[in-house]
Amino acid sequence: MKKFSVVLFVIVLLSNTSLVKAQSACCGLDILGGMLLESGIYGGYGAQQFSAKGFNDYIKVYNDNRPALTKTMDDFGFTHGWKVGANLLQIQDDDMLYGLNFFYQQTQEKHEATATLTNNIPAKREYALTLISYGFGISFSYVMSNSFDLKIADIKMNWNNAKLINKYTEGTNPTTEQTLKSPESSIGGQISTGLVYYPFPPYISLEANVGYSYFTIDQMQFESGQYLAQNENSNELMENFIDGGGFFAFAQLNIAIPIFQ
User: Fold this and answer.
1) Which pLDDT score is estimated for 169?
2) 44 with 20: CB under 8 angstroms?
């Protein structure tokens, strides 16, 4: 509720500022006439860093329990993937841009361990971790020129989930697969800054942004309802599967749709 109040306050403040400047405003149309209002969509690709202490401790025990592995399972902590979203509203006031936006992001990281069993039968286990994040935010940008904007800050609130697929293949036998998911969404946040370039201003732009995202995934649950333990040798529940977020970087294409000009 507090975050909604902050967004509402920003909108009211911008409206009041424009009202003072628009001396001849009658019914609000003159105020909008002095601004550029846009909505639009965007999509891009990038990378997300994170800390997975619980999961990586699980992997360490997995490797230690199998000294005959020809390739051990690597640690997790760096995903790649895509992001799509919508700029719900963007208002220009002099050299400043204020925006409301929504996004959906999905990134993935895969690692595998291999071994050679008796009779030279190859075996492989693969873990594929998918991180899913979605949310909304507000942005503040400075208009440098017709071709460039400096995104001072893009502040988002997000909800986060994880999915882990465990695949095992042995020789020519069919691959077995287990799926684990986080039982509930965890709330986090992120802040980023970036540079926006307009090859075809003002409706098409290319954006590069970097930032820091905070989120946690405490537990993971099998489809059977059981929860993931701390490791293969333990019956204790894992409660720090992902214990923190990290830095991220994304490049994206923005397509704007004018509402009023």
Assistant:
1) 96
2) no
